[in-house]
Amino acid sequence: MIHARQFGKTADGKTVLAFTIKDGKNEAVILNLGGIIQSLKVANKNGEQVDVVLGYNDVAGYENNGGYLGALIGRFGNRIEKGKLVIDGEEYKLFCNDRGNHLHGGKKGFNTKIWDYVFEGPDGNTLSLSTTSPDGEENYPGNLKVQVRYTFVNGELKIDYAAVSDKKTAINMTNHAYFNLDGEGSGNVLDTFLTIDADRVTPADETLIPHGDFKEVEGTPFDFRKPRRIGERINDTDDADIRAGGGYDINFVLNKPAGAYEKIAEAESEKSGITMEVYTDKPAVQLYTGNGLHQNGKSGYYNKNYGFCLETQFIPNGVNCPSYDALGSAFYEQNQIYHFTTAYKFIVK
Question: What is the pLDDT of residues 150-185, one digit of tens each?
């Protein structure tokens, strides 16, 4: 069963609950504030619990310190150029909150909502969060009903996303967990080995907006087709995309059939012995290496590169780039079901 407790209150007095999902020695703590993964403790090679996600100890941390730590992102994860969204010839001007572009749902994205909850499954061990994003919220069209389910079984934290709108709209949900397999607050992640099954990335401009182009990873700092330490080429400033992101902050186009649910990435810590495998049926993933981290977290100060994100997604700005939209469209017709799954599986090798 899932254990619920009060985590705190928002600045405007709303109660925030924390839900603990047990999985043997492992446990995940999810908040009804923004569907946030507040804690994710897994057993290391010595059988000791290690909290592998960055976060805050109180509600004020999530409200004031930014970074989208552990948050459920929507309606639209990542960036849309200049907040421009055109649907059937009508332009919707979205709120621009990042260098003149729309980022992670705008001024008040899904990460700021208090979600409704129920416990599901035969053992009551699935946390189901739901909300409605009303027509016109952040200027998106359509009343959007959303449900996100979390399960944690056999070391695998699975997030199942579903939504439906009463108008044609755009949707691209993800989770913004920052991982450190050595343990949150333990230092940087530059020695972590990373593998991403992708031959191409989508190069971006200085504001991190891609414009429809692709770049082969061969011979670049983005070639993670075989395991490499994150820090091996993170400072290769000869590469324009490394310069623009201040490290890794780029979208990878995955080497798998559209809609196929497959393993797409793996990260490994020599120190803890923990390996994390990532599975998804989304067509792309954003690697972000916490280049902007500079806040106090659960166990101390989080500096630059203290965590890494693998945000499964449709390609950023794909709503304005037909070449990206063709690989997986974020446009959904009236009453068309949006449904995707991402899982993070933890094992000790």
Answer: 999 999 999 999 999 999 999 999 999 999 999 999
Q: Considering only CA atoms, give the Rg of the chain.
A: 19
- Alpha carbon separation from 324 to 5, 50, 284, 310, 315 (Å, rounded): 43, 38, 10, 19, 6
**Residues 10, 63: contact at Cβ < 8 Å?**
yes
Whether residue 176 lies in the annotated active site: yes
Instruction: Write down the catalytic residue from 81, 138, 277, 311.
Output: 311
The residue annotated as part of the active site, out of 102, 104, 138, 176, is: 176
Q: pTM to 2 decimals? A: 0.97
Sequence-distant (6+) residues with CB within 8 A of 232 are none
Tally of structural domains, the chain: 1
Range of the domain at 254: 3-348
Give the domain CATH number at 161: 2.70.98.10
Say whether 311 is catalytic: yes
